[in-house]
Design a protein that fits this description.
InterPro entries: RibonucZ/Hydroxyglut_hydro, Rieske_2Fe-2S, Rieske_2Fe-2S_sf, SCP2_Rv3818. By secondary structure, the chain is α+β, with helices and mostly antiparallel strands. It is about 30% helix and about 25% strand. Strand 24 and strand 25 form a beta hairpin.
Length: about 525
């Protein structure tokens, strides 16, 4: 099995029975904030795109690059389609000209022509990617590969049961806006960033230990930030709180926990994987490339500057009545929302910053009032969640009909945020679901999980706790760490106070727990 690195989470897998192109991303994403690093735009995409199969793990725009897919990937390719709850991915791919689809039943091995086998595991909670994420397992002639990319399954046993995996590709770096955009003192921001960075690596080590593959490939990050406004987010300043470590940092940190089987793929690197080993060739020496990272970024910044400026020029749509359009699009969804609206529990404020003809900064504040089920001008009331961004970005979201403001505005990092109290996943779940189809799916998902009662308990240290994390049902016998009276679920880093059951990371999600030497409290009744 030959694997060619094509940048970020992208790779081309070649076997004698066919070729698979995974997640090709070249064009900037999220309001021209994210670029692939190392740069992959100069690869021979005309040849790389001539494949038998296409696999797109999910709709995040650093995995689903519509312009690139349309121009470079053969429309004769069969799309290996995850079993997602909505048809959005298939619909978007059909609009790009793809007509052949293999809808892979979830977690079932499918044998393709020539003995090539694949299995796709789809994750389907509202917080997985943009309504869905997935992993691809491939086997040919006894060689097995798992492309886990960004996905965070509760465990990897589904893949391990199919036989020893020889190549494990997985995310290790940040793909979020926290804590960089928050209006916090720099010391606090650095501390939170270091916690986030450490959790990312801890989760990665756990997955690696679960699968015990022959070779581990760090992929799916980090992006690089080439706009001058965002340049500080690149991990080139010695900031221990930066959440975007690169592949060379991965190798260094992996070595500290005993890892010796890491393999880096630069764009153009080729790994020949057999049951006995992995031979990799690179277009340039890996150590030398990352030693000159700053120079590479600076050269890339100048080369991509016209692209960024052209994108910025396209965002402004002064003809859009922002308040009126937000009312028209969001209020019907507020009316239909039960679980998400209750979960948010209060107004969310957007401060839209603009510059008038005299050069003075102006701010229009708009509130999405979840209890009141309306969008209205800010009335000087207290709010728990506030976002501040350029007015032009909101104009562009409304002009384009974007249904996922998380997979656009928030991932762009082109905003600042403030909140009172804990993280609230329902805020982001709602702004990811600005369509009838998405909202109804998310409401149904939360309804189903609200009614479910997790009756199984496990013992962790001095505590008896429910086996499944209240957040996204991770198995706490595998991901749970107890320190004193607190439990941390390493899958997403959520923390719980065991004495009270209170979630310390977000609103809601109470955990059931009691000391091992004490009688448990009565089990809760299922919601009616």
């Amino acid at each position: 099995m030959r694997v060619t690195g094509t940048g970020h989470a992208s790779m081309r897998i070649d076997t004698a029975a066919g070729s698979i192109l995974c997640d090709p991303w070249v064009n900037p994403a999220y309001f021209a904030s994210w670029f692939p690093f190392p740069d992959n735009s100069q690869l021979d995409w005309e040849s790389l795109g001539q494949v038998d199969y296409l696999y797109v793990s999910h709709l995040h725009r650093d995995h689903f690059d519509a312009a690139h897919l349309k121009r470079y990937v053969s429309k004769q390719a069969t799309v290996l389609l995850p079993e997602f709850p909505t048809s959005e991915m298939e619909d978007e791919l059909r609009e790009l000209g793809f007509t052949k689809f293999l809808k892979a039943p979830n977690e079932q091995v499918v044998e393709l022509d020539g003995g090539l086998k694949i299995m796709i595991q789809a994750l389907t909670s509202p917080t997985d990617g943009p309504i869905g994420d997935s992993s691809l397992w491939v086997e040919y002639d006894g060689v097995r590969l798992l492309n886990q990319n960004d996905a965070r399954p509760t465990d990897l046993s589904t893949f391990a049961e199919l036989g020893h995996v020889h190549a494990h590709m997985l995310q290790f770096s940040g793909a979020i806006w926290y804590p960089m955009v928050y209006e916090l003192p720099q010391a606090a921001k650095t501390a939170f960033g270091k916690q986030k960075r450490d959790r990312q690596f801890d989760r990665t080590w756990r997955y690696i230990d679960d699968l015990k593959a022959s070779h581990v490939f760090p992929i799916a990050g980090p992006p690089c930030f080439l706009d001058d406004e965002l340049w500080q987010f690149n991990d080139i300043f010695g900031d221990e709180g930066n959440i975007f470590p690169d592949q060379s940092v991965f190798l260094r940190e992996y070595a500290k926990v005993g890892g010796t089987n890491g393999v880096v793929l630069l764009p153009g690197s080729v790994a020949e994987i057999t049951t006995d080993g992995c031979e990799t060739t690179h277009p340039v020496p890996v150590e030398e490339f990352f030693a000159n990272k700053v120079a590479h970024l600076e050269e890339m910044r100048e080369r991509k500057r016209p692209i960024i400026e052209a994108e910025k020029a396209s965002w402004r749509h002064p003809e859009v009545d922002v308040l009126g359009e937000m009312k028209r699009r969001i209020e019907p969804l507020l009316d239909e929302s039960i679980y998400l609206a209750k979960g948010v529990g209060g107004p969310v404020r957007f401060d839209l910053v603009d510059t008038d003809a005299s050069g003075e900064e102006t701010v229009e504040s708009i509130v999405v009032d979840f209890p009141g089920k309306e969008v209205r001008p800010y009335a000087d009331e207290k709010v728990r969640y506030r976002f501040r961004t350029h007015r032009g970005l909101i104009e562009q979201l409304l002009h384009s009909g974007e249904v996922d403001w998380v997979n656009s505005l928030f991932l762009s990092c082109r905003f600042s945020a403030a909140r009172i109290g804990q993280y609230n996943e329902f805020v982001y779940a709602f702004f990811k679901c600005l369509s009838e189809e998405r909202l109804q799916y998310a409401e149904g998902w939360y309804d189903e999980h609200e009614r479910a009662v997790d009756a199984e308990d496990i013992t962790l240290g001095d505590w008896v706790v429910q086996r499944r994390c209240p957040h996204l049902k991770a198995d706490l016998s595998r991901f749970g760490i107890v320190e004193g009276d607190q439990l941390t679920c390493q899958l997403h880093g959520w923390r719980f106070d065991l004495a009270s059951g209170r979630c310390l990371t977000s609103v809601g999600h109470k955990i059931r727990a009691h000391r091992a030497d004490e009688a448990p409290a009565p089990a809760p009744e299922p919601a009616s």
